[in-house]
Amino acid sequence: MADLDQTKFQSLLRHMPQGYVEFKVLYDEAGEPVDYEFHEVNETFERIMKAKREHFLGGRITDKLKDFEYSEREWIVQVARAVSSGEAITFEHFSRRNKAWYELSVFSERPGHVSTLFHDITPHVQENNALKQLVNVSHRFVTTGRELLMNQHFLDQIRGFTGAKAVTLNLVDDDGQTYSTVALSGIDELLERSLDVLGFHPVGRKWPMSPKRSKLLEAPSPIVFDDIFPLVDGVLPKRLIKNILRIFNLGQVVLFKIEKDGVFYGDLTIVMQGNKEASRLGLVELYIVHILEQMTKAGRQIGDAKESMFEGFATVDLECIMSLTNHEIFHLNVAWERVLGFPLEELENMDFTSLIHPDDVEKTNEAFALLEEGKDIFRFVNRYRTIDGDYRSIEWHSKVQGNYIYAVAKDVTERVQLEEELAERDRLLTKLSDQVPGAIYQFERRPDGSFHFPFFSRGFEVLTGITFEEMKQDPGLVFSKIHPEDYPNVMASIETSYENLTIWDAEFRVLTPDGRTTWILGSSRPEKLDEGHVLWHGYIGDVTEKKKYEMEIEYLSYHDQLTGVKNRRYFDEALITYDEPDYYPLALIVVDVNGLKLTNDAFGHLVGDRLLIEATMTLKREIRGKDTVARIGGDEFVIIMPNTSLEEANRLSDRLSQLFLAKSIEGLPISASFGEAVKDDDALSIAEVFNLAEDRMYHHKVSEKQSRRHHSIQLIMRTLYEKIPREEAHSQRVAELSRQLGQAMGFTSADVNELVTAATLHDIGKVAISNEILDKPGTLTESEWREIKRHPEVSYNILSTVPEYGPLSEIVLAHHERWDGNGYPKGISGKQIPLASRIISIADTFDVMMTGRPYRKAKTLDEALAVIAEEAGRQFDPELVEVFFKKVVPTLQR
């Protein structure tokens, strides 16, 4: 029976789709492993290494792998680890030779031998990497014949010292006909709006290398353009370019070519804000020169690394003779120069022990003490400082003859580093058949359709909960564990593999004994036996966590994170899906939620988010089950309505408009502008239908915008008065005092009206400050004062949304500036402060002193006037103070 099991096991290893190699460990006289001899390899390993079995068997690693790429020998390090630890390990490894990812397990099945299992996981790594690019594009490796790392930090640095709005890195693809944007640095808003406007993230996008662009790149670097149009003309639609220029206010573009020795690799493009020019471009040129030098240097370093790898398998002895009593050097051979870097003459005339690492001095002294006792020292390791200040680990074999210490040594730095890495590993796996992650198995189907499992490892039991004994009695138990929804597909895939003798790959769910659901990834290679018999050799593993991550990424890829509805990426793909006659008439409703910026400025982004969420909930409640809502911009949504007429779409828009107005956020009613269009046939493309709906929405938005904004200002003031009742009377008193002072200064009636309006609205920004701060009876903290001092800027942001209030917003912004320049928010002084702002400053301060605040008692009229007089020339315009006392004070009731 044992021979039968061994035969099955050997058959499994020979035909399994995973690569397998077993080494015999070669030891020296002291029992330490010094090399490894190839004992067994399977067919898959031959394909991986691209060499025949005869090339390896009986040969040593140090000999047989000299001609292989450096990366192909990295896994050999793990072989040494498994031998040293006596346990097994698993890790992922990238083969540059095959351009493939493998999951490797290194283990020892029997004394004096060590094995390695190669499992090709390239498709799954590639799939995961593709998904990860959707949420993280900040770090990329770019290959252009040599390895070039251009990370986000590098582009951020360039954007910082040039003052650019955005910096992009574009590299020519291998075909030379296209180029790709591989990295982008820009403010978050720019990135976000790129997604909104373009409908895709530019990073990773391929662009055609048009003759027009090639012609532009013939100019010497750097190439300066007035705007981005010459670079994207012919690549993006002109309408889209026009929108980009309008939305982003882009200006000068500076393009630096990345080329060396006649080879053009790509370009670094700097995009400036409108009306700004890039600064410190010389630094950019130095950066690019530095990067090109690093490319060449990296190539040399890789070559050096390969050479040192081969040297690591060789033994280079170092010779040393020193005095037993005072450790004076009598002889060193020339090999020490290569190891430590010092000239040999200098080494022989210095205190050689002074080069010992401070942490190794004590154990070195102990070793000398043993030598003085006449004992020999073998395999003693300490560290010596090199001429560069680094340390090399030296292994000594020493003995005493007379008054001299004779020693030979070798540089074992790489071995010591490997041992240190081994010591840091805290999780090791064991044998192939039992401890490899997942499970390996054999599955046989007979001509009559019956099947059985000749072999499976203990991992199979962990994944399915079925023991080997249970499996022998009833092989069908395995299939009973497959999730009912996945069972038909699994059985169909087995049948396809059976009929065509193709590799079986499947991803499915199994039900575990404790009631959980686990995702399993399986792969096996079929082997045709006797007529009608097929034997699969395969591997299965638990990919539950990877599957959860994939599903999470997939959800995020097609859903808006804030509102939960579909996003722009889904919308772009859905338009293609729905552009079929079965869905005609296909209606699109473009919905633009009004006042988002105003809400953000007045109440903060959290309230703005509430506005969008409330609007989204209204949309979702009113649409049909077959309709879809997608958020395609910051405040823009689209409703996709299959089999819907224009009249039906118009009725839904009207109903939604009324429902929005019936709801409010912080006292402001929710409103939106709508645009509808319908595709009835192929007369218009789906893109033209969308553009038509969007144009109609913009038309409605423009026609409603002015009255809506005026109404919003009134509602915000009403909200402020309801929130802080004293503010209404305060605004009226400040407006009246300002009117009197303006008239005393000889203002025209129009100027007086503007002054009174500004004074009435001067504290509108307080609507964004919490009542806990505004009504706090005690002394305000520093952070609370900072919050209070924000209100002029918030007032400015609110008022500036209405063009007619533009001049008023400038007056309100400066009403807390001081004559001496110590005010806020800008710290301007004297007549730099608008005259109307200086008037409101006096009126505002005077009224606050007369009426008091929760944190400050009211003053008497005389006390308040004394403060006004004392602050003339400091807080207030002295001329205005003089007019105030002559013309306004006499009218005040004492």
From TrEMBL:
Keywords from the named record: Nucleotidyltransferase, Transferase
Gene3D superfamilies: 3.30.70.270, Hypothetical protein af1432 (1.10.3210.10), PAS domain (3.30.450.20)
Record Pfam families: GGDEF, HD_5, PAS_3, PAS_9
Signal sequence segment: none
Ranges where the GGDEF domain occurs: 584-713
Residues covered by the HD-GYP domain: 705-894
Domain PAS, chain residue ranges per copy: 329-375, 425-501
PROSITE patterns: GGDEF, HD_GYP, PAC, PAS
MF term (GO), any: diguanylate cyclase activity
Upper taxonomic lineage: Bacteria, Bacillati, Bacillota, Bacilli, Bacillales
Name recorded for this polypeptide: Diguanylate cyclase
Species of the source: Exiguobacterium mexicanum
Ranges for domain PAC: 504-555
EC number in record: 2.7.7.65
Top EC category: transferase
